[in-house]
Amino acid sequence: MKYDSPTNQSEILPNLLGLQTVEGIGLSEFEGFLKAEIQLTESLAPGTKFNVSYILKMHKLSLGHLYSFAGKYRDVNLSKGGFAFPAARFLPETMIGFENEILLKLPCKYDDKEALVKDIAKVHAELLFIHPFREGNGRAARILANLMSRKQGCDPLKFELITEKEFSNYVLAVQSSADKNYEPMEKLIRFIFPG
To answer: Is 146 helix (H, G, I), strand (E, B) or coil?
Structure first.
């Protein structure tokens, strides 16, 4: 399901490559996110800090070849299925709050898997709830979750286990983060966490 936006109802966003089909754009976005995840995984180090600058860089790396808005906060208000994401004009402050309250408190090393699962769930739910970008929020959040897991020597999460049947629970888990209730997302991350 595409976003509801007051300024652009089209499924084809203006792009730097002049692509005119949903399939062409989808493939270009997929390739961009794949290349970015590989590059970020290769440069991952024990001291890597996941902060707002890192998230913006990740988005730019993923979609900079395609969209002029890559690596920048969205300037339109978005909703999906009747759920309104935080207003665009508050995104800089919202993201700084996310960084100060959550990202900067992440430890470099985790002593147990459960603490890692809880932090991945919190970061994932909050980033998806904030929805800072015009396009690619879900994929950026999944890459970040995978990088958090890989940084601790674990495999990437098994997001493919979230089938259409479980997707409504995934959406509810994101919406629960509005009330700082991360338990639904923790349950889901536990389910898809690698062996």
So the answer is: helix
- Residue closest to 98 by CA, chosen among 138, 58, 128: 128
pLDDT of residue 165: 86
In eight-state DSSP terms, residue 76 is S
Look-up of token digits 């995984």: 41
Chain centroid to CA 74: how far? 14
Q: Once rounded to an integer, what is the mean pLDDT over residues 45-52?
A: 96
In this structure, are residues 106 and 186 in contact, taking their beta carbons and an 8 Å threshold?
no
Q: Running DSSP on this structure, what letter comes out for residue 3?
A: P
Q: Which residues pair with 84 in a beta bridge?
A: 79
Q: Which CATH superfamily is domain 22-192 in?
A: Fido-like domain (1.10.3290.10)
pTM summary value = 0.93
Q: What six digits make up the tokens of 107? A: 């430890």
Asked whether the beta carbons of 49 and 58 are under 8 A apart, the reply is no
Phi-psi map region of 185: left, alpha, beta (phi>0 left; psi -120 to 50 alpha):
alpha
Q: What pLDDT does residue 86 have?
A: 93
Residue 102: half-sphere exposure toward Cβ, Cα within 13 Å:
21
> End-to-end CA distance of the chain, in Å?
31
Decide if 188 contacts 162 (C-beta within 8 A): yes
